[in-house]
Amino acid sequence: MQGVWRELAGLVLPVDCAGCGRPRTELCAECRRVLARDGRGARRVRPWPEPVGLPRVWAGTPYADEARAVLLAHKERGALRLAGPLGAVLAGAVRGLRAGGGPLLLVPVPSARRSVAGRGHDPVRRIALAAAGELRRAGRGARVLAVLRQRRVVADQAGLSARQRLANVAGALEVRAGAARLLTAQPAVLVDDLVTTGATLAEAARAVTAAGGRVAGAAVVAAPSSAFEFNGARSEALPHRM
Q1: What InterPro entries is this protein classified in (predicted)?
Q2: Which element (helix H / strand E) includes 44?
Q3: N or C: which end of the chain has fewer CB within 10 A?
């Protein structure tokens, strides 16, 4: 019910731009342009150090300034109508994967039940649904399959090192009972709002693969600016994949 009341309030109360604070617009044209990276679109990103099992990851925009503010407004302040523009950014990241020409399954990384209850909505699932709609309107078959769940409680990842995050989420995810058969029809794209170390996406890929699914890659709305730079100077320091 919290999500319903937030949406109703947004229809009648004046709002400011979630990205820059410009009055009387939930997301101004300038901040939409920033989310779209001035037309440059999504790019492949790579956290460093790269966790074992991490699939190819594409991100729509660097996690900085306006993009950070918009994601936090949607996730923590319940600005639910921002799911639309954020879903468009995520859809661009999904397209970047070029995961074949058939229908795709978008598999959201699950939030803890206590977090969903506290926020009144599941932000990643909401963005994934918006992205699937965007892809279908563009002629690409896509549907959201929320089959992952946490099998145990994990600590808050904020403040943990890359090594600690890997240990924190190792074995923490699983496919819901009876849902494994749903993963065998089409390739799965893991989706999340943000990637930092890649530990959670690597664990999600392990869980989907263990259930018999085929992971085509991962797509996120945002990633640290440094992860966008691996095609440049950092690429010489990174091991090449076979």
Answers
A1: ComF/GntX_DNA_util-trans (IPR051910), PRTase-like (IPR029057)
A2: strand 43-45
A3: C
The CATH number of the domain where 185 resides is what? Answer: 3.40.50
Q: What is the pLDDT of residues 94-138, one digit of tens each?
A: 999 998 888 999 999 998 777 777 777 899 999 999 999 999 999
* Residue 236 forms part of a structural domain: no
Positive or negative: CA dihedral 205, 227, 142, 123: positive
Cβ partners under 8 Å of residue 25, min gap 6:
15, 16, 17
In a domain, 176, yes or no: yes
Backbone φ, ψ for residue 110 (5° rounding): -75, 145
Q: Over the stretch 11-66, which tens digit does the pLDDT of each residue have?
A: 444 478 999 888 878 899 999 988 888 778 899 999 988 999 999 999 999 999 99
- DSSP β-bridge partners for residue 149: 174
Decide if 10 is inside a domain.
no
Question: How do residues 60-97 score in pLDDT, each as one tens digit?
Answer: 999 999 999 999 999 988 889 999 999 999 999 999 99
Residue spans of alpha helices (H) in 138-189: 162-169
If one counts the domains in the chain, the total is 1
Strands 43-45 and 57-62: antiparallel
- Evaluate whether 75 touches 193 at the Cβ level (below 8 Å): yes
- Report CA-CA distances (Å) from 114 to 110, 117, 122, 124, 201: 11, 5, 11, 15, 20
Q: Is residue 9 part of a domain?
A: no
Q: What does pTM read for this prediction?
A: 0.86
Closest CA to 144 of 154, 129, 156: 129
Q: What's the burial of 175, exposed, middle or buried (CB within 10 Å: 0-12/13-18/19+)?
A: buried
Domain that holds residue 86: 42-231
